[in-house]
Design brief:
Blueprint lengths: L26 E4 L8 E10 L7 E2 H9 L4 H8 L4 E4 L4 E10 L2 E5 L3 E4 L5 E4 L2 E5 L4 E9 L2 E8 L4 E4 L5 E3 L2 E3 L2 E7 L2 E9 H12 L6 H17 L9 E2 L15 H8 L4 E5 L2 E2 L4 E2 L37 E7 L1 H7 L6 E8 L5 E8 L4 E5 H8 L6 E10 L3 E3 L4 E8 L4 E6 L6 E6 L2 E6 L5 E6 L7 E7 L1 E8 L2 E7 L6 E7 L2 E6 L8 E5 L5 E7 L8 E7 L1 H7 L1
Parallel strand pairs: 3-20, 5-17, 26-32
Antiparallel strand pairs: 1-22, 2-21, 2-25, 4-18, 5-16, 6-9, 6-13, 7-8, 7-12, 10-11, 12-15, 13-14, 15-16, 18-19, 22-23, 23-24, 25-27, 27-30, 28-29, 28-31, 31-32, 33-34, 34-37, 35-36, 35-38, 38-39
Helix pairs in contact: 1-4, 2-4, 3-4, 3-5, 4-5
Length: about 550
C-alpha cells in the first residue's frame, strides 16, 4: 500500500479449520416458497470495521493520539498487560517476489554475488534479468582485442549485495541483500535486512505518514513486535510483503516522519510473560476490538489480545459500512453453494463478531461456512456484520380495474421500511411505513410498481398489472356495444369466430366515458372484444356468444 494511503492493511494469520463461539443470532431470513411466483426478497448486509479487529486499531490509535495520548499509553490500551522491552537487530527475510519468471535486479554501483557454494564474485553496476537458471555475467574473456563477459550459472540461492546503493527489484529499491531462490522453474525474491530497517519499510505502508507521531510510533512498535514474534528461521523466508503478514514497500514507503517514529522507538517491542508479544493489528475495529479466539480459537485465550473499547474508531471511513444487497440466489452463487438460500443463521463469536454462518438451502440441504470465508467471498471488510431481510409478496400480479390485491411486506434486521409505489417513470411515492411485517390492500388504477425500501437500499420490487374492465352486449341485429373502463389508448378490435379461426370484423371507437358502439352484422357464434396493452394498462378481452334465440330477440 502506497505511503500515505488511507487504505490501511493489517497482519493476517492463516485460516484455521474451525471457528468456535456462542450462538447469539437466530433465523434472519426465510426465502419464499417456490409456488409463490409473485414474490421478491433481498438480503441486506451491514457491518463495522475493516480487518480482523484484533489488537491495535490504526484509526483508533490515530484518534487517541489526537486526544493527547503518547504511544506507550496507546499500546498499553490495545495490548493490556504487556510491557515495553527491547530486542536486538535480527535479520528479517521478506518475500518481495513470488512465482517470478524473470527478476530484474540491479544496483547503481558495483555489486557482488554469491551462491550455495559460498563463493563471492564481483558484478558490475547495472540492471540484470535473471531467470530460475540464475545465470549472471561473472567471468570474462578477451576476444578480438576486447573483453567479453560470460554468463555463469549459480547454485540456488543466489545472494546479491551492494555496499554503496540500495538494490533494486523490478524498479523498486530495497535495503539489505536480495536473495534469489529457484523454486520449480520460477524465482522467489527475498529481501534480507535488519529489523529496524525492515520496520521503516512497513510503517508508512500501513499508516498514513501524515498522522500524529504518537500513532506512527505505536505502529512502529506493533510492527516490530509482530515481526520478531513471527520469525521462521527454518523456513526460506519470514514475512510476506502484503497483508498476509505486514505491508512492506521498501524504500518507497520511507518518509522523514515515519522514519522518525521508527528511530525514536528503536529496538522497542511489546513483551508479555518474558516473550515478545504477537502484536496483531488492523485498520478499523468498528468500535471494539476482537478476541483472538474469534479467528484463531486454537490459540486459546491470550490476555493481551482480548476485546477493549475503541471509542475513536468512529473517525474511520470504515467504522460502519454497507449496505450490501444480495438476492437469495446471488448469495448462494457468491458463496458457491448453488441454487438459492432459504435461511441464514449467524453464530456469534466471543466478541460479538460472526464466527460461522449456517445456510439452509431451498433444495433442502444445509451448509456451514466460517465467517472469514464468507467475508472473503462477499468482499466484506470484516466479520462484524449482520444480515437483514426485505421481502415483498403480492397475492396477484394482475388485477381488473376496480379490484384490489394484498401486498405482504416484511422487514427484519434493517429497521422500519417504507412501502412505496410508482406509476411508469414517475417518482416513488410512500404508501405506508412497515415495521416487522404488514399486509396492505391496494387498489391500483393503472399498472403500478411497488417496492419496500430503507435508507440506502431501494429494496425488492414487484409490479401489479391492471387490466381494463370490458363489457360487451348486442344492441341490435347489426350493432354491438359495450364499455371499457378506464378508457384505453390502445386499439380495440372485435373478432368473430369462423371456420378456420378468429377474424377481425370491426375496430370500434371508444368515447370519453369508455362506451363504444360499432356496426357488426351479427350471426350465431362467438365474438371477442380485444383491448391492446400500453404502458398504463395490461391487455384485456371480453367474450360474447350469440345464439339463434338471442338473434331472434333482437329483431
Amino acid at each position: 500500500m502506497a505511503a500515505g494511503s488511507e487504505e490501511l492493511r493489517y497482519p493476517a494469520a492463516p485460516l484455521q479449520r474451525k471457528i468456535g463461539g456462542i450462538v447469539l443470532a437466530g433465523l434472519l431470513f426465510a426465502a419464499v416458497a417456490a409456488g409463490q411466483s409473485r414474490a421478491a426478497s433481498e438480503l441486506v448486509l451491514t457491518g463495522r470495521g475493516w480487518g480482523h479487529g484484533i489488537g491495535l486499531s490504526q484509526w483508533g490509535a490515530y484518534g487517541y493520539a489526537l486526544h493527547g495520548w503518547d504511544y506507550k499509553r496507546i499500546l498499553a490500551h490495545y495490548y493490556p498487560g504487556t510491557k515495553l522491552g527491547t530486542t536486538g537487530e535480527p535479520r528479517v527475510r521478506v518475500l518481495v517476489g513470488e512465482d517470478v519468471t524473470v527478476a530484474t535486479v540491479g544496483c547503481a554501483s558495483g555489486m557482488r554475488v554469491s551462491d550455495a557454494t559460498g563463493v563471492w564474485w564481483p558484478l558490475r553496476a547495472g540492471t540484470y534479468g535473471v531467470s530460475s537458471s540464475l545465470v549472471l555475467p561473472l567471468t570474462h574473456a578477451r576476444r578480438h582485442h576486447r573483453t567479453v563477459w560470460l554468463g555463469r550459472a549459480l547454485r540456488s540461492p543466489a545472494v546479491l549485495e551492494c555496499a554503496l546503493n540500495p538494490l533494486t527489484f523490478d524498479g523498486r529499491g530495497y535495503h539489505g541483500k536480495l536473495v534469489l531462490r529457484a523454486d520449480g522453474g520460477k524465482l522467489q525474491v527475498i529481501d534480507a535486512l535488519p529489523l529496524d530497517t525492515y520496520v521503516r519499510g512497513v510503517v508508512a505502508a500501513e499508516m498514513p505518514h501524515r498522522w500524529s507521531l504518537a500513532a506512527l510510533q505505536a505502529q512502529a512498535v506493533a510492527a516490530r513486535s509482530y515481526a520478531v514474534a513471527t520469525l521462521h528461521p527454518s523456513a526460506p523466508f519470514d514475512e510476506y510483503a502484503d497483508q498476509r503478514s505486514q505491508m512492506f514497500l521498501g524504500l518507497a514507503a520511507e518518509t522523514p516522519r515515519s522514519d522518525q517514529a521508527v528511530m525514536s522507538t528503536l529496538g522497542q517491542v511489546l513483551t508479555y510473560g518474558g516473550s515478545v508479544a504477537l502484536a496483531y493489528y488492523s485498520a478499523s475495529s468498528g468500535g471494539r476490538t476482537a478476541d483472538v479466539r474469534d479467528l484463531w480459537p486454537s490459540m486459546g485465550p491470550v490476555p493481551y489480545l482480548r476485546p477493549v473499547p475503541d471509542p475513536y474508531d468512529g473517525l474511520s471511513p470504515h467504522h460502519l459500512w454497507g449496505p450490501i444487497v444480495l438476492t437469495p440466489e446471488r448469495l448462494a452463487s457468491e458463496l458457491g453453494v448453488g441454487g438459492s438460500v432459504a435461511a441464514v443463521r449467524l453464530e456469534k463469536s466471543f466478541s460479538g463478531r460472526v464466527g460461522a454462518v449456517d445456510l439452509s438451502l431451498a433444495s433442502g440441504g444445509s451448509v456451514r461456512l466460517p465467517a472469514r470465508q464468507v467475508a472473503a467471498r462477499l468482499g466484506l471488510r470484516s466479520t462484524w456484520f449482520s444480515v437483514g431481510e426485505l421481502s415483498l409478496d403480492v397475492s396477484r400480479g394482475r388485477v381488473l380495474f376496480g379490484g384490489g390485491v394484498h401486498l405482504v411486506a416484511r422487514s427484519s434486521g434493517v429497521g422500519r421500511a417504507v412501502l412505496q409505489k410508482r406509476v411508469g417513470a414517475g417518482p416513488w411515492l410512500p404508501v405506508r411505513t412497515v415495521g416487522g411485517g404488514a399486509t396492505v390492500t391496494v387498489e391500483p388504477r393503472v399498472t403500478t410498481q411497488y417496492r419496500l425500501s430503507v435508507p440506502g437500499v431501494a429494496g425488492p420490487e414487484l409490479a401489479v398489472a391492471v387490466a381494463p374492465s370490458v363489457t360487451v352486449k348486442p344492441l341490435g341485429p347489426s350493432l354491438l356495444g359495450g364499455r371499457i373502463l378506464p378508457r384505453p389508448t390502445a386499439p380495440v378490435t372485435v373478432l368473430r369466430y369462423e371456420p378456420g379461426g378468429w377474424r377481425v370484423v370491426a375496430h370500434p371507437l371508444v368515447g370519453p366515458d369508455g362506451a363504444f358502439r360499432t356496426p357488426v352484422r351479427l350471426r350465431a357464434g362467438g365474438y371477442r372484444v380485444v383491448v391492446g396493452g400500453d404502458s398504463r394498462l395490461a391487455p384485456a378481452q371480453a367474450s360474447l356468444t350469440v345464439t339463434k334465440r338471442l338473434l331472434a330477440s333482437l329483431h
